Amino acid sequence: MSGIEIIGYIGALFIGLVMGLTGSGGSILSIPILAYLFSYDEKTATAYSLFIVGVTALFGASQSLYNRLVNFKSVWIFGIPAIIGVLLVRRILMPVLPEVLFHISDFEFTRRMLVFGLFGMLMLLAAYTMLHKTKVNLSEIENQSFQFHPLMLTEGFFLGIFMGLIGAGGGFLIVPALMLIAKLPIKEAIGTSLVIVCLNCLVGFFLGDFFYMEIDWNFLFVFVAISFVGIVLGGILTKRVNSERLKKVFAYFVILMAVFIFFMEFYLNS
Q1: How far are the Cα atoms of 15, 102, 104 from residue 108, in angstroms, in the given order?
Q2: Which of 112, 149, 180, 242 has the highest CB neighbour number within 10 Å of its CB?
Q3: Half-sphere exposure (CA, 13 Å, Cβ side) for 140?
Q4: Domain interval for residue 132
Q5: Are 159 and 85 in contact (CB under 8 A)?
Q6: What is the rounded distance in angstroms from the CA atom of residue 97 to the CA atom of residue 8?
Q7: Interval 148-199: pLDDT, tens
Q8: Could you report the per-residue pLDDT of 82-115, keeping only the tens digit for each?
Q9: For the chain, how many structural domains are there in total?
């Protein structure tokens, strides 16, 4: 095992630690670690990320189900279109997407640039949501009940396509959507989001990538096991750490990672 791989497994522990402390951030860290420390290409990195995020979300989803913090109407209405979007990308689009998408003079825009460019933008959006407090009146939402809106179908579908392309769960995008569109209380929105993320990732992986990709199961199981150790440690430390301050520090780290990805993909590798 090389020194870079050892750092990668330490990164797996860090992924779990961040998820245990903040409740999110798994895919934001897993894809750069898989791509730059373990040297997986964009197809494999996003596929493995779906498995890693899906399994870790399953842990959180089971707790939410036990505590009855899941709105099943939202899971079906929002989640099924999202799963369809993820499947279309992972089963149909990714296997046939060419390595070079188009040329502009001597510049080649590649599949890797598309995937990691979108992922970098997602990281910046995630950092923005962590650094800026929501203007939504949470007390008003807490007093409301589930409301169906057609936007749940369309947003779920397009979010599924986006998440399928970049191999991420997108929980921080799903939670506000469930609160603003479906009018779910924040705890119920988080629990429902975990179920949707879990379904999106695992269905996308097992009904998509599993059929055309050779999977290194030993690597995945070791990576996930180390991440779970981090989640347990994060859960233990969460009462001793200022969560708001931690989110701000993590947000600035995410911005640095996004800048690094843009530099690597659009400058160094172009």
Answers
A1: 33, 6, 6
A2: 112
A3: 6
A4: 3-268
A5: yes
A6: 28
A7: 667 778 888 988 898 888 887 677 778 778 888 878 887 788 888 888 888 9
A8: 999 999 999 899 888 898 888 888 888 899 999 9
A9: 1
